[in-house]
Amino acid sequence: MNKIFFIFCLFAFVINAEEFGYTAYDGPTSYNEAWNSPLCKIGLHQSPIDIDSSHFGNSVNNPTSFVNNLPDGYTLRVRNNGHAITYTSTDNSLLDFKLVKNGIEYKLDNFHFHTPSEHRINNRHSDSEVHFVFKTDPSENAGIAVVGFLFNVDVIPKYPWDSILDPYLVPAKKNEVETIIGFNLGDFFGKAFDNKNVYQYVGSLTTPKCSEGVLWHVSGVVQPIFFRDFLNLRKAIGFSARPVQRSEYAGQSVDGCGEH
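User: That's the sequence. What structure does it adopt?
Assistant: Structure tokens below.
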């Protein structure tokens, strides 16, 4: 009887391990074993990190640019996967919204929110963080660049977050899906991303398999998020942040911005 019970529990653990999370059972401390992701444990350039605000730098001499090929806006699928609210194209293909750095083009794969923020500034986390994940191609070996914006609650909603985080558009339960039509990515990046105030470093994905070599851009301008929208996010996904990693191993700066 005990043997059968043990096998059942082991089977249940394997099934649950198909999707990582942020609890004691499926969270960051289990990523190495449950997901066969050794970099999550022994990687030397892991993310997120704690950033000294004095390291936010000016990259205007080698700027990161964005190319918006659909000015009328993108149709996005919004899915609650249990640990994040994720925005993708409706067919999971790469969106034709591009990040260009050092002559290399990356297309937007997805963007998703964490509560609270994963990165910290001066050892203080923010209420939320969004990650825009760009890839050079759809393959597993694609180059990856991520743009992160931190948020703190504000009493005044600000476009476009008030529109895409409307309670009617954020799936409240796991595996629920909604659709957003006409989201203008170019307009948002034109207003929110500033090459004069960004921290760039080479780190990793913050979820299994914690792949390294990721080109990070963390904005030094903390964005406002409406209190209603923040509560809606937190209710939908709860705690969803990997702890900061040891800063001396966290990454190597690029463009002279964010020297450790």
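Confidence is low (pLDDT under 50) at residues 3-18, 256-260.
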